[in-house]
Specification:
- The protein has 524 residues and is an alpha/beta fold.
- The protein has two domains: 366 residues, Glycoside hydrolase 38, N terminal domain (7-stranded beta/alpha barrel), CATH 3.20.110; 111 residues, Families 57/38 glycoside transferase, middle domain (immunoglobulin/albumin-binding domain-like, Up-down Bundle).
- The chain has 20 helices and nine strands.
- Strands 1, 2, 3, 8 and 9 form a five-stranded parallel β-sheet that branches. The protein has a four-stranded mixed β-sheet with strand order 4-5-7-6.
- The longest helix has 27 residues.
């Protein structure tokens, strides 16, 4: 008999990175890494579980920016070339290490994995990754929800309410166009909530969203069951909150499973270890070393002195950790079931890229967890299905919160990035003014206004202030932010007097996301 539910939630997001003007672009390489190491392995494991009849269910967000990149033919063709290069490098590594048995065995290990991955991408998916996700949604195994259009940090955009509405409306429309259905719920960008946001979500028929723990723990009135049951907001939208225990057990590299010394080390990569002349065709053409996906070492010692990776040893640890995770959730649910008048749900949200990209063995871990739960007192469930089976919940007002450091908004508003917000607010106000000024524009002005809306949305991405705070790739984040604001200003400056159509077309081709965007959302 099932005593409670486990709600796995994977948040799949990348900022919109598409540079057709270059044959190679480093940030596109990041997207290819995530696709090869996370999304394809997850899809393949899910396909295997479904074919074998294993009862697995979870909820997953595909942000509109990521979904748009997965649907982009140019990026998919470039990814095909990326996979061909990884296989070519693996072939060379088999030859290079032929007199080193342990390394040679690992080179062959990667060759097999890369080949299987390419076959799955080309033959099984037909190079259409979104089709794989749609198939899992159609079979009811995965509930796919949306996020903000460009992952905009909604509490800091709320100064200009049409900006929040645009992030939500464009997201819902994009989800419908690319996934073929309306999203039942939403992953709030950065889990960031402010009072009143639920009214916007309800207006777009979004039935639930995800918060961090303190969003429910400090609700008014207090949540009766803590984070182990959702609440309904005054607008009637269900708010689910993260369970800290199950999240940390997997998420933390120091206290969680991914830090085990049997697992593969993320940072030691052949792209940084091997001679530059040898590795040059497989890293950035400008000589910047990059990850290749071939990593020979496991998590031992410092960066230089690490022991070789042992796939069989790692596989054994995966089985042990999956068993431990399920055991802990069973004890957790047994305890909670005796205190509640409804079946508890343990919600475990993670960034999807943890599984496969950061934690190489992560997809195998999830597969073993689902196999063990088939005979457990815990039932994996999608959040929409949980609400269908358990429709009655407490009504309360959630607390403003996020899942950033210290739990509120400081990561996205501090001394390293506060300068961007004056430009965003100014541009948003001007966008609304222009939208009201031209309620029925001629075709050329409509294109200009729609492109202004695209550039504003792209500038609003929470990734840019986050990167500035973290101090990684700051130059790129600043460049991207300034690029979109500058394009917005150029478009605004010529809206009244006409425009060089070739220049407009170049902007549309460079930032071609949201082809069905309607700028009039800013006039509402």
């Amino acid at each position: 008999m099932k005593s409670g539910y486990w709600g796995l939630f994977l948040h799949a997001h990348l900022p919109y990175v598409r540079h057709p003007e270059y044959d190679y672009f480093l940030e596109e390489h990041w997207f290819f890494e995530a696709l090869a190491e996370c999304y394809l392995p997850l899809l393949r494991r899910c396909s295997i579980l479904r074919d074998e009849g294993v009862p697995f269910h979870f909820t997953m967000s595909l942000t509109p920016t990521l979904a748009s990149m997965l649907a982009d033919r140019l990026l998919m063709e470039r990814f095909t070339g990326y996979m061909a290069r990884t296989i070519e490098l693996a072939e060379k590594e088999i030859l290079r290490t032929r007199d080193q048995p342990e390394l040679n065995r690992l080179a062959r290990f990667y060759m097999d994995r890369f080949t299987i991955k390419r076959r799955f991408f080309v033959d099984s998916l037909g190079k259409d990754v979104l089709a794989g996700f749609r198939s899992l949604a159609d079979s009811g195994h995965v509930e796919i929800v949306t996020c903000g259009a460009t992952h905009g940090f909604l509490p800091l955009l709320a100064y200009h309410p049409p900006s929040v509405k645009a992030q939500i409306e464009v997201a819902v429309n994009t989800h419908r166009r690319l996934l073929g259905r309306d999203p039942a719920g939403i992953m709030l960008p950065e889990c960031a909530y402010y009072q009143g946001l639920d009214e916007v979500l309800a207006a777009y028929n979004l039935r639930f969203f995800i918060m961090d723990s303190h969003g429910l723990l400090y609700s008014r009135p207090r949540s009766l069951f803590g984070v182990f049951a959702p609440i309904y907001t005054p607008a009637g939208v269900a708010a689910f909150a993260r369970d800290h225990e199950s999240s940390k057990q997997v998420w933390s590299s120091k206290e969680g499973y991914p830090g085990d010394q049997a697992y593969r080390d993320f940072y030691r990569d052949a792209g940084f270890d091997l001679d530059m002349e040898y590795i040059r065709p497989y890293v950035s053409p400008d000589g910047i070393r990059t990850f290749t996906g071939i990593k020979y070492h496991r998590i031992t010692g410092d960066t230089e002195h690490k022991e070789l990776y042992e796939p069989e040893r790692a596989a054994e640890r995966v089985r042990e950790h999956a068993a431990n995770f399920v055991f802990n959730r069973e004890r957790q649910v047994e305890h909670l079931a005796g205190l509640m008048d409804k079946p508890p749900i343990v919600l475990s949200p993670y960034d999807a890229e943890l599984f496969g990209h950061w934690w190489f063995e992560g997809p195998d871990f999830l597969e073993h967890v689902f196999r063990r739960m088939a005979d457990s007192i815990i039932r994996p469930v999608t959040l929409a299905r949980y609400l269908e089976e358990n429709p009655t919940h407490q009504v309360a007002t959630p607390c403003s919160s996020s899942w950033g450091d210290k739990g509120y908004y400081e990561v996205w508003l501090n001394g390293s990035n506060d300068w961007i917000w004056r430009y965003l607010h100014n541009a948003a106000i001007r966008m609304s003014g222009r939208a009201r000024q031209y309620p029925a524009p001629d075709p050329l002005r409509r294109r200009i206004l729609n492109q202004m809306a695209r550039e504003l949305l792209l500038a609003q991405s929470s990734d840019w202030p986050f990167i500035m705070t973290m101090g990684t790739s700051v130059e790129y984040a600043q460049k991207r932010f300034n690029l979109h604001v500058d394009r917005f200003n150029q478009l605004d400056a010529i809206l009244d007097d006409g425009w060089d159509e070739d220049k407009l077309r170049a902007m549309e081709e460079a930032d071609n996301i949201f082809p069905d965007i309607d700028y009039s959302v800013y006039a509402k």
